[in-house]
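Lecture 7 notes. Example A: sequence first, then its C-alpha cells.
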Amino acid sequence: MIQLENISKVYQTKNIETLALDNINLEIQSGEFLSVMGPSGCGKSTLLNVMGLLDNPTKGQLILDGIAIDGYTDKALAHMRNQKLGFIFQNFHLISSLNVRDNVELPLLYRKISAPERKRRTEEILEQVGLKHRSRHFPSELSGGQCQRVAVARAIVGQPEILLADEPTGNLDSKMGEDIMILLKSLNRDLGTTIVMVTHDRALASETQRIIHLFDGRQVN
C-alpha cells in the first residue's frame, strides 16, 4: 500500500540545513497496522507528512497504492489525499469558525455524497467518539481532549483506505485513549484500513502489528 524508496528530507533555511529523514526504505502492506516510535525530533511527524502527501521528499520515491507520486500537481495530490487518506494531526487543525459537526463533515463535501448520507455518517462517527451532544459547539468551547476526538472523527468519517495518526491519544485521558485505540483497531480489522500511528506510548505500540523505530531521521532496529 505504501512504499518509501531511499526517502530523505532536508529542511533548509538561509543558515541552517536540517536532515529530518535519512534514506528511509519501508514497505507497508495493505491492511497493516503499524506504529512509529522514537524520541522527539527524530523525524516521525515528517515521515507521516511525506506519506500523507503533505510534504515532498528531497530525495527518493514514494509509491502509494502502486502509484509513483513523482511529478503530481498540487491539485492531483489534493484529490488523492481526499480519496485515499485520513490524517489525525497532533495539533488538531480544526477550523475555528466551524462547529464540531461541520468540521467532521468537511472531507465529505469534496466527494459526490448526498447531504442525507453526509449527515448520517457524521452523526454516526460523532456517536462513536462520544461527542454527538457537542455537535453544535465550536472548537473554542471544547477541551483539548474533545478537540482531539473531533480530529479523529474528521479523519475517519470518509472511511479512508489509509489512516495516518500523529499521537492520536496524546491529549486524551486513559479511558478515552483506550476507546480511540479500540476504534482504530476495529477500522483496521473490519474495513481493512491501513494505519500508520506515531506514538510515544509503548503499551499502545505493542497493540499494533509492527513497530518502526526512528532515531535522528534514520530507521533503526
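Example B, a different protein, same format:
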Amino acid sequence: MFEVKFADIGEGIHEGVLYKLEKKVGDLIEEGDTLFLVETDKVTAEIPSPISGKIHQVHFSEGDTIMVGQTIVSIETNEKVEPVKHEIVKEKESTSVVGDLEISSEVIPSSEEIIRPEEQSFKKVLATPVARKLAKDLKVDINSIEGSGPAGRVMKTDILSYSKSLEPIIESTNNATKEVLIHAETHVEKMSMMRKTIAEKMVQSKFTIPHTAMMDEVLVDQLVAFKNDIKDIAEENQVHITYLAFVIKAVAVALKKHPIINSSLNWEDKTIIYHDTINMGIAVDTKDGLTVPVIKHVEQMGVLEIAKAIEVVAQKAREKKLSIEDLQNGTFTITNYGALGSSFGVPIINYPEVAILGIGKISKKPVVKEDCLDIGYLLPLSMSFDHRIVDGGDAGRFMNTLKTLLEEPKLLLLS
C-alpha cells in the first residue's frame, strides 16, 4: 500500500484545502495522473500520482483542511517504492511529539536547489516541530521571530516571548472587537486561507518595517501621446498596451541606477542583499483577494514584452492558475490603485522587499507650463520605503529618475 501525503511544496505553506478530488475509490490511476487539487493561501496546486495502481482509500473529503504530512489517498500497487527518511528534531525537555513525521513516502521530494545570495532572505526559517505547532496555535508568524537555538533555530521559548510582547495589542484589539459584536447586528463569515495570509503578511510588514512614504505627481503628456502612437503596433502584435507597462519599464531602468531600492535587508546578519535582477511583483485584485504574481527579469524586456507578461500573469491570477514559481523571488512591487479610480494611497511594503510603488489614475488638471496656465495629464505616484536602509535622499533620487523617464518616455527606447 502506498500513501500519498500532502507534501511540503515550499513558500512556508503548512496547510491547504482539498479543493477537488480527481479520482475515487476503485479507480485505476497511472503515474503522473492528477490525484487531487489543493487550494493553499498562494496557489491551487495539482498533485500528481507518483505511482500507478488502484485507489484503495480517500482519507479526506472536498473542502476539508489538510496539513502537510497528512495522508490524503492510499493506493494499491505492485511497485516497490523506497521510503524517504525524515530527520526528527525535538526540543530538549519536551515530551510533545506533535510535528514529528514517521518514515513515509512523499509525493514531492524536498528541494535540493542551491540558494543564491540574492535569495537568502526568502528561505524557510529553521524551527523545531514543537515551536511550529505552538506558533500555529498562538497564530504567530514564525518568520518574524529571531531564533535563539543552534544556527538560529526558533525554539518554544522564542515563540512564547514573542507572543507575550504582542499581548497588549491583541488584548486591545479583542476588546474592541467584542464591543462591536455586542452592540451591532452581525453575521459571521470565516476568513479564507488567502485572506488570512494577506492579514498575516500585512501585520508582519508593518511590525517589522519602519515605513515612510513619498508622494509626487508627474506630467505625462508625452507618455499619453506616445502610448497612442504605438497602439496600432501593439494591436498588430496582439498585445493590449497599458500605462502600467511603461511604468514597469521606467521603474526597472530607475532601479538599475539606484540599486539600494532593489534590495532586501537581512536583519539578523545586518547585511544588505542587492538583487542583480529585477523581478517585478504586480498587485492583482481578484475575487478571492489580493495576490502578487512576479514578472521575472523585466530589465531585459521591452515595453511590449512587459505588456504581454502583465496580461498573462493577471489572467492566471484571476483564474487561480498561478504556480509557486509565479509568486517567488520578487524584488520590487507595484500596486495600481488607479485602475479602481483612486489617486493617492500609502501602500504597505511587500516584505522582505524595501520599497513599493503605488500609481494612481491619470487625470487632466490645470498645470503651469512656461509660466502659463494650461491643462495637462498628471500621474500620481506614492512610494513607501524601508527607512532602516533607504534614506529620504535615496528615495528622492529614485523618484526623480522615474519622473524623468515618464515625462520623456522615448528615453525608455534607449535603455
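Note on Example B: The longest strand covers residues 372-386. The chain has a mean pLDDT of 81.
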